[in-house]
């Protein structure tokens, strides 16, 4: 049985090392918690959801997640992905999930080599997903590296959203 407090602490320590100036500059927020029996670190923008008061649980949202659970820990793997949920309902945009996913993935492929064991072979709700091996003593570094990696590509989400923006005709 996974020791949630132990892993929450590891994830918090990693989050503390993420460049706060960069997060502010990019308007990114961090959330650490337990979701679906996994300890998770999520990076997201409030602009990527309709629900500004509860962006973590909003039904329409985009976020990057890094997580471990009983299964992944047994295999010494930390998983990561980008989820895009119910985008057709995102205010200010006219999006079909499949078109958004295809457009994002096309741009993402230029950066694929920077992500270990990554795949884009998923339905449109999971834009990409992968995993890395970790040893217990370097889990914090693995989490930090994945978060920093996301900071270098988060603009791809904004770039993709821009393509689906509803422009107001004058």
Description:
The protein has a single domain (4-163), classed as Metal Transport, Frataxin, Chain A (2-Layer Sandwich), CATH 3.30.920. Helices cover 35% and strands 23% of the residues. It has helices at residues 4-17, 20-25, 70-74, 97-108, 139-151, 155-163, and strands spanning 29-35, 38-44, 61-68, 77-85, 126-133. A five-stranded antiparallel beta sheet has the order 1-2-3-4-5. A hairpin with a 2-residue loop joins strand 1 (29-35) and strand 2 (38-44). Helix 1 (4-17) crosses helix 5 and helix 4 crosses helix 6. The longest helix is centred in the N-terminal third of the chain and has 14 residues, at 4-17.
Give a short synopsis of this structure.
The chain has 170 residues and is α+β, with helices and mostly antiparallel strands. It contains six helices and five strands, in the order H-H-E-E-E-H-E-H-E-H-H.
Secondary structure topology:
Blueprint lengths: L3 H14 L2 H6 L3 E7 L2 E7 L16 E8 L1 H5 L2 E9 L11 H12 L17 E8 L5 H13 L3 H9 L7
Antiparallel strand pairs: 1-2, 2-3, 3-4, 4-5
Helix pairs in contact: 1-5, 4-6
Distance between the termini: 60 Å
Percentage of β-strand residues? 15-25%
Structural class: alpha+beta
The CATH architecture name reads 2-Layer Sandwich
Low-pLDDT sequence parts: none
CATH class: Alpha Beta
